[in-house]
Amino acid sequence: MPKRFVVPASDFSDVPRFAAGLELAEALTAAARQLHGTDTPHGTMRTAARLAVDLLPGAEYAGISVLERGDQRRTVAWSDDVVRVAEEADAREADARGAERSPYWAGLWQTPVVQVRDSEADDGDPLLAGLGLRSALGLRLRADRRRLTVLTVYSRKPRAFDETTVRIGRLLTVHVSLALDSTTEREQLTEAMRTRDLIGQATGILMERLDTDAAEAFKSLVRASQRENVKLRDIARRIVDAHSAT
Question: How much is the pLDDT for 243?
Fold first, then answer.
């Protein structure tokens, strides 16, 4: 049956049960709770793909892809293998033709929402049609000058997505984007702390090895990084690993 504004509580097994269904606002609140409960950007995107299928009317499959300028694309999360196969097949076919990928993807650089209403129509998408995917709805999650992150839902039925799906999809993408920003920031902070500790260890090793102070040891790290055109953290890791091996 098609999804409506009321989403069964059973679709959200890790949130408290409600006597009746969840109204749309409550469903989105529950979805946001799940999204913000993830630990990494990849975990956020995997959760988002699953939630898109649960929440968006007409959606049977979902995936999240990163599009790069120059028409490069990689699929980073998917609800079903057919999504990964569809997007990888699109990339291979375009590379073989030396042409752009499916035109509906290219539209996301200019607009936050694009659709394939019927992949078997004259202006449809033969690759999707060959996999039995008749409808696709692409929703932009994040964008900068070089890169797009896109949530796409698919259906085996033609014209499966209406304005209600678009509206709910855009509400969901707001929550996904916020959760992605949060987990990305946490991951970057964690990496920065690890890098700081690593550089501190390497500096201490060089202080002992060169019989010098912290400032001079750190300058030695910087010079090595510049000389070898290698990131400072990688130079530091090399020194720490070599010291640990002795």
Answer: 87
Tokens describing residue 172: 């969901």
DSSP assigned state of 22: B
Q: How confident is the model at residue 127 (pLDDT cuts 50, 70, 90)?
A: confident
Residue for token digits 């998917």?
78
CA-nearest of 128, 172, 206 to 25 is 172
pLDDT grade for 154, boundaries at 50, 70 and 90 = very high
User: Can you tell me the distance from the alpha carbon of 144 to that of 125, in angstroms, rounded to the nearest whole number?
Assistant: 26
Question: Any alpha helices (H) in 2-80, and if so which ranges?
Answer: 24-36, 41-55
CB 64 within 8 A of CB 141: yes
> Which positions ≥6 away from 179 have C-beta within 8 Å?
32, 35, 36, 38, 44, 48
Report the alpha-carbon distance of residue 45 to residue 154 in Å, rounded: 16
CB 180 within 8 A of CB 41: yes
Instruction: Compute φ and ψ for 144, nearest 5 degrees.
Output: -140, -170
